[in-house]
Specification:
The structure is a homodimer of 106-residue chains. The two termini of chain A are 29 Å apart. Chain A has a three-stranded antiparallel beta sheet. The mean pLDDT of chain A is 90. The first copy, chain A, has a single domain (9-102), classed as Winged helix-like DNA-binding domain superfamily/Winged helix DNA-binding domain (Arc Repressor Mutant, subunit A, Orthogonal Bundle), CATH 1.10.10. In chain A, helix 2 (24-34) crosses helix 3 (43-56). Helices cover 57% and strands 12% of the residues of chain A. The first copy, chain A, has 106 residues and is an alpha+beta fold. Chain A is globular, with a radius of gyration of 16 Å. Chain A binds a DNA duplex (30 and 30 nucleotides) through helix 2 and helix 3.
DNA sequence: AGTAATATATCATATTGTGATATATTTGTC
DNA sequence: GACAAATATATCACAATATGATATATTACT
């Protein structure tokens, strides 16, 4: 999938959770709760992706960080990327919904 | 990402396009148009994924198929999967939007 | 003191996606 | 009726991503 800055699902989910300061474990729990258990990201994926998001400077290590927990938050750039993603994803959901409601059983 | 039948982005996009009978090339164009060029799936990804969706029986080879074009459509099972996906994706978009609109620049 | 929950981390592997490329057919046009 | 451009499908080898298994340390609870 080639795009103007397209995120994978997992990246999107994690960034969606980081509009507020959260640490890795909290992100995992939030995603699981928000989707009622339908989506869950394990630690391997979690920390792999966090590393990448840091490198891209879409998230940063936030103050609340103590020796035990590392708290992250979207950067301004990250917010913009997320906003763009939300827009694109909404378009595709609209397309899917329109098609589905036509009840086009051919 | 572990789930009750989670689709990758590309799979989702392609299935979203197949609520009506379409052939591969048409799917590619539709996705590009619907997202205003922001998302584009090339032939390699397209046909790889179509093969997988056929095997899963989420899409099937539809009648309109002539010797030249192969037309596909969602199966009933495929519709259900897509419906479930739309639900989950909406939840995550809502989460992202709520976070974003708080304008929480800490 | 012992155990469950919290929290981060990594490695090797599995899964998924894609650029490059090939081929055939149809359509338009000079 | 020759040629180019657009349409349409297909595959391979490689790149990018995600993940199960596992390890380790700290905190909370009883």
């Amino acid at each position: 999938m080639k795009t103007t800055e397209q995120l994978t699902d997992s990246m999107f989910y994690i960034m969606a959770a980081l509009t507020e300061p959260r640490h890795g474990y909290a992100i995992m729990n939030l995603i699981e709760e928000s989707t009622k258990g339908a989506v869950s990201i394990g630690p391997a994926s979690m920390y792999t992706i966090i590393k990448k998001l840091l490198k891209q400077e879409w998230i940063y290590l936030h103050d609340g960080t103590d020796s035990r927990r590392k708290t992250y938050l979207l950067t301004e750039k990250g917010r913009e990327v997320l906003e763009g993603e939300v827009r694109i994803r909404k378009l595709m959901i609209t397309l899917a919904e329109e098609g589905l409601k036509k009840e086009g059983k051919v």
